[in-house]
Design goal:
Blueprint (H helix, E strand, L loop, with lengths): L2 H7 L2 H25 L5 H23 E4 L2 E4 L10 H33 L32 E4 L3 E2 L7 H16 L5 E2 L2 H6 L7 H8 L3 E10 L2 E10 L4 E11 L3 H21 L4 H9 L12 H16 L3 H17 L4 H16 L5 H18 L4 H14 L3 H14 L4 H13 L3 H14 L4 H13 L3 H12 L6 H13 L17 H13 L3 H15 L4 H10 L3 H13 L21 H9 L3 H15 L6
Parallel strand pairs: 3-5, 3-6, 4-6
Antiparallel strand pairs: 1-2, 6-7, 7-8
Length: 631
């Protein structure tokens, strides 16, 4: 008998085939179950390794042992009459067929059927969001009309074993959002509002209602060594049903290329899902140009990793020292890759912040900022961030508010869904006395970014500027219901209360341990009104010692509130010398109204080019005084 016949007689061939079928089945099952159960990605490699190592052992035992009615025996000890080849062979064949069939079913489900009924990521993928029961039939989608194509991109969950890739998962989410925001037919909630809900345990319908959308995109990022798996799923808020989901497995050789690829693919699919066949051309155009502004295939990967880390720091901290660290990181970015337009644009904004904080001299900051802006626009003439930085420079450094308005309008031409541009354009309009137009842009900014405290405060402040104190207070209290811990909103409400001679109500909004320049300003005023002159003077003296060159405008407001008008104007002139950004608010500040008619104040206002806005402001106040409110 030949070797092949002996192998067949001992069923070695069939055992080998059965083993391979079983191994394939287990590998397919593991690949499907690992992401769902949030198991380490390395488990797939371990199962494959065990399968390969086990194969020669299976072949050896099939050769060395025989199955007899009395059990397993060594092959050399088995007589021909004890051998049950037919029964054993039949069982092995059934095992082979069974495992092959199961593996094929898993393969078909994973590739063709799974996405149609449920996402490839289990509910715990978005750990912060708990999806509840199906809503009532016919119930209208919360926060948005049925016909509106609106979406919020929630921060993707970092599923990496070390949980150290949050900056990457956040970056993926932001890039997808940026792609979608370019389409004017889509209402896309901004990053700050979507990310404001990070970590909250909310029902998806409540998330949609608070963000004013009818669709949610969520997902996860799992990175292991040089491999990355990204899963995204689109959910309709009204029915809590999954419209689409996809999983991407890639090698992480170039992080920004992967990010652009995913953004383009997901952006195209979402636009087609939400907007229908009529927007195929628009969606394709977005997909073909969906790389982030200023990001091209030539960007150095190390520079881009640092850029994402800087973005994560920018969005997750507001300490002055963090602003300096942010600028240091961006300096490294442009040093590694001098041709990275977004790096230069973001560096310009960081330079603006550290300059306005007084960390670097104002004149030096202005020069450095313009150098970064010029380089960014040289590399990318339509760079949204660079144009926004240019508008900020015109308004805050050059006091050219009309020029700032023109530049912010350019930003909106590039990205009509830029909440930041709408809000900053509104501020510039309010500086020039165009309050009705300002409120329109604030309202548009709040539609895009409903939970951004800066936008909320500016909108409420604009009501207060025209002495609509009741409406301003109402908005502040409404905004504080969902951002109760925000210092800026509490300070804004306190100022409105002070302007209504209700200073005694201010102290309840703050803890003794809270430290903030604007809290000190409010406390100095409130203590003065309450007759606590010692406390008021103590706080004011501390502000003068520590913030004379960075808070001159607010110090002037304190002196005007105290009725010390000459000293107030002294500080306004000092604010002009130091180019205090707060000075852009000089015409609109309610506290400064008693001194705006003084010759020295008028000369300062004329020097700033704000004579016409002052006239508009005064005319508006006169109109307000003859009516119960300004609509």
């Amino acid at each position: 008998m030949g070797l092949w016949d002996e192998l067949k007689r001992r069923n070695v061939v069939k055992v080998g085939v059965a083993y391979l079928a079983l191994a394939w089945f287990v590998i397919q099952l593991t690949d499907t179950v690992v992401p769902t159960l949030n198991l380490p990605e390395s488990l797939n490699a371990i199962i494959l390794y065990i399968s390969l190592v086990g194969f020669p052992f299976a072949i050896f035992f099939a050769w060395a042992f025989e199955l007899t009615p009395e059990g397993l025996k060594r092959s050399e000890d088995v007589s021909p009459e004890e051998y049950i080849a037919n029964a054993r062979s039949s069982k092995i064949e059934r095992v082979i067929i069974g495992f092959l069939a199961a593996a094929v079913l898993i393969l078909i489900w994973d590739n063709y059927l799974g996405d149609s009924d449920e996402p490839q990521v289990a509910d715990q993928v978005q750990g912060e969001i708990i999806q509840k029961a199906e809503p009532e039939a016919g119930r209208e989608a919360p926060g948005s009309s049925d016909n509106e194509a609106s979406i919020a991109v929630l921060p993707f969950v970092d599923m990496s074993a070390e949980q150290d890739q949050e900056y990457f998962s956040d970056g993926i989410s932001e890039e997808i959002l940026n792609v979608l925001a370019k389409n004017p037919n889509l209402k896309v909630t901004s990053r700050s509002s979507s990310f404001a809900l990070k970590g909250e345990r909310l029902d998806l319908r409540e998330v949609a209602a608070r963000l004013g959308v009818n669709h949610i995109l969520e997902g996860s990022v799992r990175k292991s060594n040089n491999q990355v798996r990204i899963t995204a799923q689109l959910i309709e808020a009204e029915s809590d049903s999954h419209l689409w989901s996809e999983t991407y497995d890639r090698e992480l050789e170039n992080i920004f290329q992967l990010q652009d690829e995913l953004s383009a693919a997901i952006g195209s699919v979402l636009e087609l899902k939400l907007l229908g066949e009529s927007t195929i051309v628009a969606a394709s155009a977005v997909a073909s140009s969906s790389t982030s502004p200023g990001i091209s295939e030539e960007v150095d990967p190390d520079a881009y990793l640092l850029y994402l880390q800087a973005a994560h720091l920018r969005e997750n901290s507001n300490r002055i020292e963090d602003t300096l660290e942010l600028r240091d990181i961006l300096l490294q970015v442009v040093e590694i890759d001098p041709d990275f337009a977004n790096g230069h644009a973001r560096l310009a904004l960081a330079t603006s912040s550290v300059s306005q904080y007084g960390i670097i001299p104002f004149a030096e900051g202005s020069e450095l900022m313009m150098a970064s802006i010029d380089r960014a626009l040289e590399l990318d003439p339509k760079n949204e961030i660079a144009h926004r930085a240019l508008a900020i420079h015109r308004g805050s450094f050059e006091m050219d508010f009309l020029g700032a308005i023109i530049d912010f309008e350019k930003v909106l031409e590039i990205n009509p869904n830029s909440d930041i541009a709408h809000a900053q354009l509104a501020r510039s309009l309010s500086y020039l006395g165009e309050y009705d137009k300002a409120l329109e842009h604030f309202e548009r900014a709040r539609e895009i970014d409903p939970l951004n405290p800066s936008i909320l405060r500016d909108e409420a402040d604009t009501e207060a500027i025209v002495h609509n104190y009741a409406r301003s207070e109402q908005k502040y209290r409404e905004f504080l219901t969902f951002r109760p811990d925000n210092v800026s909103l509490r300070v804004g409400l306190s100022i409105v209360l002070i302007l209504q001679d209700r200073s005694d109500e201010v102290f309840q909004f703050f803890q003794d341990t809270e430290e903030d320049f604007f809290i000190d300003q409010v406390f100095s005023m409130a203590n003065f009104d309450s007759g606590n002159l010692g406390a008021a003077d103590l706080i004011l003296d501390q502000l003068i010692r520590e913030e004379a060159d960075t808070g001159a405008f607010q110090i002037a407001e304190i002196y005007c509130h105290r009725g010390e008008y000459e000293t107030c104007v002294d500080w306004l002139e000092h604010a002009l010398e130091t180019r205090d950004p707060g000075l852009s608010f000089v015409v609109a500040s309610q506290f400064l109204e008693p001194v705006l008619e003084q010759p020295r104040s008028l000369a300062l206002i004329e020097q700033m080019g704000l004579t016409e806005p002052l006239s508009k402001h005064q005319a508006l106040l006169e109109r307000f005084s003859s009516t119960t409110s300004i609509q």
